[in-house]
Structures are given as C-alpha cells and as structure tokens.
C-alpha cells in the first residue's frame, strides 16, 4: 500500500526501523494542505488550506508496517487515517483527530523531521513556514 509521510517518518533510518518492509519511492507534494504542529505531543499534523502544499514522501508499506504505524500514531485516538489519490493510486496518511492550537515542536522531534527533509531532499521552506504560525 502507498503511505504519505510528512513528519518524523520522513527520517529514513527511523522509518526503516519502525517499518522494516517500507520502501521510499519518491518525494511528492500534497496540494491544498498545510503543515502544522499540535497536541500535547507537539507533533506534525496537516490541515486543509487552499493553494498551499505539504511536501512529503511516498512509501510503499506492507500490511504489518501499517499495523506498526497505527500503534506509533496512536490510531484512532490521536490520529485518524486520511486517504487521497496520487495519479489514480490510493494513498494513506494520518491526520490528527482533535485540531488543537499550534504547539511548537520539541527540539528533538524537530531535528528528526529536519533530518527527514534532508533524507527525502524536500524544500525546507515549508517546514520553516509551519514553525512561524
């Protein structure tokens, strides 16, 4: 199945450790969404926003990988699944259930996300903009 990562799961080493069958396919942009950080965990989330994009990574994951991600993302309590189509193919990602106000991420978490942006060769400006909220 196809999975879209936009937060700490962009970090290739961490993603491989978490989901042993995962294969990084390529970087893609999720259109009409923006990146933010929220909840008591100060974790990444996406929300609808016209003319905005969230850079991320497309991974191929197995069913057992999905189960591991469900546990990591605290599905369905903290995150719920969101599906979209990319060139006719169904893609799964997670989005937070409760849209609390912006919370600046911890330095440790932010460094993992930044490393992921490097691993996937993403434009860091989207992350920088998300932190200015």
Q: Pairing-aware structural class of the strands and helices? A: alpha+beta
Q: What topology, given as strand order, has the largest sheet?
A: 2-3-1-5-4
CATH architecture: Roll
- Poorly predicted spans: none
Q: Which shape, going by the Cα principal axes?
A: globular
**Number of DSSP helices?**
4
Distance between the termini: 33 Å
CATH superfamily: Gamma-glutamyl cyclotransferase-like
Mean pLDDT: 97
Summarize, please.
By secondary structure, the protein is α+β, with helices and mostly antiparallel strands. 28% of the residues lie in helices and 41% in strands. It has helices at residues 12-18, 63-72, 107-119, 125-131, and strands spanning 2-5, 23-38, 43-60, 79-86, 89-96.
What does this entry look like structurally?
By secondary structure, this protein is α+β, with helices and mostly antiparallel strands. The chain has one domain: Hypothetical upf0131 protein ytfp, CATH 3.10.490.10. The protein has four helices and five strands; from the N terminus they run E-H-E-E-H-E-E-H-H. It has helices at 12-18, 63-72, 107-119, 125-131; strands spanning 2-5, 23-38, 43-60, 79-86, 89-96. The chain has a five-stranded mixed β-sheet. A hairpin with a 4-residue loop joins strand 2 and strand 3 (43-60). The longest helix has 13 residues, at 107-119. It is globular. The relative contact order is 0.27. The model has no long low-confidence stretch (mean pLDDT 97).
